Amino acid sequence: QEKKIFTVQGRYPIIRHLLRARGWVERKIPSVGRQLEQHPGDQNKQRLKTRPCNGGGGQGEALLNPHEEEEEEQCDEDPNGMHDLMSYLVRDRLPNFIWTNFLEATDRELLQQDHVVNHYARVDAFTTKEGLCLSLQNLPWIEQADPNTFFPRCYRLGTTDEREAFIEDFRLTAARSLLKLALEEAGDRPVRTKQVPNSAKGAGWHRSHISHPKHSTAQAGSPLYPELVEEALEVCKQHLGVLRHQDIDRGTPSPCRTCIDWDRFLQEYYRVAHEGAGLVLTRQQRKQCQNLLRHLAEQLPQLGMEGKLNVWILKPGAESQGRGIICMTRLEEVLQLARGFTAPSVQVGRWVVQKYVERLLTIFGTKFDIRQWFVVTDWKPLTVWFYQDCYLRFCSWPFSLCHLERARHLCNVSVQKWYKTSPDQDPRVPPDKIWSNKQFQEYLAQLGQADAWHQVLVPGMKAAILNALRSAQDQVGFRKGSFELYGADFLVGEDCQPWLLEINSCPTMRPSSAVTRRLCANVQRDTLRLVLDRKNNPTCSIGAFELIYKE
């Protein structure tokens, strides 16, 4: 009579406990519930593996390890059988509140107009890598916002136009990177000078300090002559003209389709960037490189973060937990892998490739990312609540762009749990590889960046989340009474600017540390306050949630 019947599908002992404490009675669904209880965690995008997509934001998950299963079972004990008895008594009643792993698992007959459910349909428009990539491409048509200022550029390799755009981007990035490497060598200590052709007589050269000695095929002491830099300068000049719209009257094609032999250029770039080959740079070229890169920086928001090694990250478009992700530095290998990958969980053509953030902030020489929660309680009007607590996830091995192992570059807990901490890891990195945002703020203060959290990072994360939501708003299946808790993942650049990587529609609530045990419990508690308690008492506490947007 009080409409306090709930159903939880999946292992959410905190949600069960909090609802029972409010006087709610659980209607258990053994046939579906037991099946779903085998699939906990950060399962966004897995519906491609577990079931056909019905247009919703469905997910599936990996198995819990036995210890986690035992712990959660203990949290959900019913020693007197009281909860089972109450569930039996309401077996014929429809639940008024449903918390589930994914929407497709919910019987649509259970979804009455006034019932509350924790998912929206068709959220894959921004909760899959492929969906987010496409939605943010359309953002400039919807908002006066440039996704290149918060989302590393990204391409869907299964689409011909985007695959060609990626190839062009890779080439242009290689040309810019060569100019950066040339300047780096010119600014280095002069190791020695070498006799070179008349066109570069007197120019010095020295080996780049970024190299891969074990992969090196360049002969020691063999410089690459100024013509290579000259080609890169010409490509970048043409690209700058395109960016400034100077090509409108000329009608010239892209600089990537003219100018130079790209196969040869890339092979020589690889020698410089990854095999330790030296470069020759004339004084005139040095000045040209400096001026050109300065002008390009005014047009390209990602020029700084993209670095100089042209690292890209290849991802299955609808997977989660780091499955199938690999970092690569050679164009032909990216294209070959995307064409040849035949894993049953990845549909043909569903790969995305994204620019790796090379110039990122590390902590004690280790890469980390940020898991940031937010809740959408309405799409018409769009209403967004930002959680003011979050946590950091560390890698197990020290960061290095010379070595692209997953243990150095993928911060997902589900990836890092398989790796032992490297003996080379700084001992100040937490053993459980998790920090709270409060610990991060203390670290920033030690760096002399005490204001960066509140003045740069938090505003940047809020803006990125809102832009992502607005870019996909028209595609989401809207339903009054629904809400959804999301987990956005961010990297942090050297300048403390946040870069959005992805948004998960069912962020894990399994604790992997003391920090996440506390924060995951808190965000579940505050979510129920927000979507249940606040209906009857608009002034009640909503914990760490903050309303950041309402249309």
From TrEMBL:
It comes from the Eukaryota. Keywords: ATP-binding, Cell projection, Cilium, Cytoplasm, Cytoskeleton, Flagellum, Ligase, Nucleotide-binding. This is TTLL3 monoglycylase. InterPro entries: TTL/TTLL_fam, TTLL_monoglycylase. PROSITE patterns: TTL. The keyword Nucleotide-binding applies. Residues 36-45 have a biased composition (Basic and acidic residues). Residues 68-77 have a biased composition (Acidic residues). SUPFAM superfamilies: Glutathione synthetase ATP-binding domain-like. One of its GO terms (molecular function) is ATP binding. GO terms for biological process: cilium assembly; cilium movement. The keyword Glycosyltransferase does not apply. Residues 33-77, 190-219 are annotated as: Disordered. It catalyses: L-glutamyl-[protein] + glycine + ATP = glycyl-L-glutamyl-[protein] + ADP + phosphate + H(+). Residues 204-215 have a biased composition (Basic residues). GO terms for cellular component: axoneme; microtubule cytoskeleton.
